[in-house]
Predict the structure.
Amino acid sequence: TIPEYSNQAVLLICDKGTNDSQLFLTALDTLISFVTDPICQIPIETWKIVLKRLCTFIDTQLHLSPKHHTREMHSTCVATYNTLITLIIERPTLLDDLENLFQLCEIIELGVSGEKAQSSEKIIYKKYKEFHPASQRVAEAAEYLMCILFEHKAVLHLKNDICRNWLDETTFANSMTSTQFKYFAVNGNTLLAVTELPITVNNG
């Protein structure tokens, strides 16, 4: 059947390794075509395998020795990050699985800082961690994936870990005349405004 064929095709694409970057980019485009096709019904377990293998690919590439770090290789990593973004947008239930979420967080950290916390011989707290990303393009792709995790509605599937409320611009506009804001400078480039609203405004 077509669903079975599609399922096998997706797995074969992930299994087929190649040193040809153009062929790999074509394979990523094919995966995106499958995941964005509303008619193509592929089990979520298959997409979980895809997510894991894409994360493994990024991990393997970024841990290669410096002599293998070329612009072409970084382009494949950026494309893989973008494929993961499409994957979690189209299949948001993947984020219900904490293992998937952990893998995504690891490659985000690797892309942004150049190192995963668990790969260190000792614990390095984030505020003391040095940032040496493979390239600015890779770091930006990883940061974009992180933004999608926070901003996309898929994150709301983690109901036990997120406190949801209905605050919006109108709420703040109505409170400006009666509420005192406190302002804080963060890292010298961010202005944070903090206020306390009545419980009734926050729907409890």
